[in-house]
Amino acid sequence: MAELTVDVAVVGLGPGGEALAARLAEAGLSVVGVEERLVGGECPYYACVPTKIMIRAADALAEARRAGQLAGTVSVSPDWAPVAGRIRDEATADWDDQAAVDRLVGSGARFLRGTGKITGTGELTVTGPDGTTVVTATKGIVLNTGTAPAVPPIPGLADGPVWTNREAVQALAVPESLVVIGGGPVGCEFAQVFARFGAQVTLLQSNARLLPQDEPEAGELLAERLRADGVDVRTGVKITRATHHDGSVTLDIDGGEPVTAATVLVAAGRKTDMAALGLGVYGLDESAKGPTVDDRMRAAEGLWAIGDIAGKGAFTHMSMYQAAIAGDDILGQDTKADYRAVPRVTFTDPEVGAVGLTEAQAREAGLTVRTGTTQIPASSRGFIHKLGNEGLIKLVEDADRGVLVGATAMGPGGGEVLGALAVAVHGEVPVDTLRGMIFAYPTFHRAIESALADLRS
Ligand SMILES: Cc1cc2nc3c(=O)[nH]c(=O)nc-3n(C[C@H](O)[C@H](O)[C@H](O)COP(=O)(O)OP(=O)(O)OC[C@H]3O[C@@H](n4cnc5c(N)ncnc54)[C@H](O)[C@@H]3O)c2cc1C
Ligand SMILES: NC(=O)c1ccc[n+]([C@@H]2O[C@H](COP(=O)([O-])OP(=O)(O)OC[C@H]3O[C@@H](n4cnc5c(N)ncnc54)[C@H](O)[C@@H]3O)[C@@H](O)[C@H]2O)c1
Question: What are the residue boundaries of the FAD/NAD(P)-binding domain, all occurrences included (predicted)?
């Protein structure tokens, strides 16, 4: 059994952990980064990057089909090979992280491949292919262990092959038919991609609507758009049983028609295992989804947690933001996290961009709420764009302060339009100042002006 003493151990090298380990090493601390799978985490290998490559291709197909009505005759024959090739060759190097390991070691950090478990205060035991190493971290330990796909306890589901996001991004061919369990961002993005590539897709969502974390108007419009892509969207469903046959699966639905498909893709949320991480050593609740952190990402004295397990939003930009906060704290700088203007984008077509509070969250917080909404097809740019112009802008104002506390930008480039609204919420720009702006004509973001004019109680 080897022993190693460092200033800081970073356990789990998701996007934030990788950046933080390198930053601390470059600042002169002795650092070890510990990773049991791939350095960089879920985002580059199984999540954001490969899925957005799939979406780029699926959107190209949709635009080509629209060209038939807007610009002449186009013949579209979907081919998955370029997508699978890009993911394998350009994005993931066939799921090999050597370049990331080299980058980390090049920053001056040490790297240990293996599973880390806290075995004492400031002590981590790492078990990996090269044996066991006990690491003593004199300044402390940073956790960035992320989440894994959760397979819901539907009787029979686990008795046969099931895709999660990790299998879906490695697909070498499009299944003839696909049933997606879950209508959050993951389920909606995958359902649209595979439908546009020709799969017969059914999307089963237990909640009454898609994207329940977002404004109801966005979830309802997205269901409409997915149906237009040929997806059989069913909301408010309860799946009672799964039966795997040879080469297909049937899902029984309480009070509804059963669904049979060649492949089932589970996108029903994520899970963590705090007991496996040994959080009890610090007196923390091992049955929780993650440790409770303060505004410097401290979970306990000498223990920081960043990324998905910190529970402030499961996004790569959140992981990176929190890595910067924890890094400042470790390096003695006084920076506090501020979650008033957290942006998020679901990269369906139309994109659903949102920042800050939804109307319901603002009302729950006791604010005096005014909202303003406008439909993108009613704007000049929406009219010009025509096919694929569906979307909306919704603003949520704290009327007492006269500032926006939340906004949704759904539509073509909705995630980009969101940028202006994120500045408004983050900077607490007075609504009167926003109204006095000049919005370029004819842009999609000019619709913000109409939504501002619509603000009312
Ligand atoms: C399909 C999909 C699409 C997504 N798309 C987007 C998107 O477009 N934009 C966006 O912002 N976010 C997106 N996300 C979310 C994003 O992937 C995560 O928020 C992001 O990866 C940050 O996670 P993290 O920092 O918590 O760590 P993760 O990326 O989850 O990495 C954690 C790492 O810790 C390692 N680990 C775990 N336990 C141990 C241990 N005990 N010892 C050693 N190593 C350990 C794991 O192997 C893993 O590599 C998507 C997620 C999914 C599933
Ligand atoms: N573009 C992005 O930023 C992006 C993209 C994808 C994922 N993510 C993040 O990754 C995380 C995971 O996303 P997700 O979509 O897997 O999870 P999620 O928790 O957001 O959504 C899962 C959905 O599955 C449904 N569900 C749960 N059990 C079910 C069952 N038995 N039958 C039918 N439906 C069921 C729930 O109603 C829920 O709406 C999210 O926090 C998200 O923020 C971000």
Answer: 7-323
ipTM above 0.95, yes or no: yes
- DSSP secondary structure of 125-158: EEEETTEEEEEEEEEEEEE----EEPPP--TTGG
Domain residue ranges in the chain: 2-40+97-147+272-330, 149-268, 343-453
- The closest alpha carbon to 283, from 117, 140, 120, belongs to 120
The pLDDT tens digits of the residues spanning 21-68 come to 999 999 999 999 999 999 999 999 999 999 999 999 999 999 999 999
- Say whether 277 sits in a helix, a strand or coil: helix
pTM (predicted TM-score): 0.98
What is the H or E stretch that residue 45 is in?
Answer: helix 42-46
Pocket, ligand 1, Cβ cutoff 6 A = 11-16, 34-38, 41-43, 47-48, 51-52, 115-116, 144-147, 165, 186, 277, 307-308, 314-317, 319, 347
Specify the residue with its C-alpha closest to ligand 2, atom 17: 269
Cα(40)–Cα(70) distance, integer angstroms: 42
Phi, psi for residue 263 in degrees, rounded to 5: -135, 145
pLDDT of residue 267: 98
Q: How many angstroms separate the alpha carbon of residue 196 from the centre of ligand 2? A: 21
How far, CA to CA in Å, does 408 sit from each of 191, 210, 218, 445? 22, 15, 8, 12
CATH topology of domain 149-268: FAD/NAD(P)-binding domain (3.50.50)
What Rg do the C-alpha atoms of the chain give, in angstroms? Answer: 23
Question: What is the SS3 assignment for 59?
Answer: helix
Superfamily of domain 2-40+97-147+272-330: FAD/NAD(P)-binding domain (3.50.50.60)
For residue 441, what are the CA distances in angstroms to 386, 438, 449?
A: 16, 9, 11
Residue 316 φ then ψ, to 5°: -60, -40
pLDDT band at 231 (very low <50, low <70, confident <90, very high): very high
The strand pairing partners of 142, in sequence order, are: 10, 304
Check whether the bond before 129 is cis (ω within 30° of 0).
no
Q: Which fold has domain 343-453?
A: Enolase-like; domain 1 (3.30.390)
Distance CA 81, CA 100 (A): 26
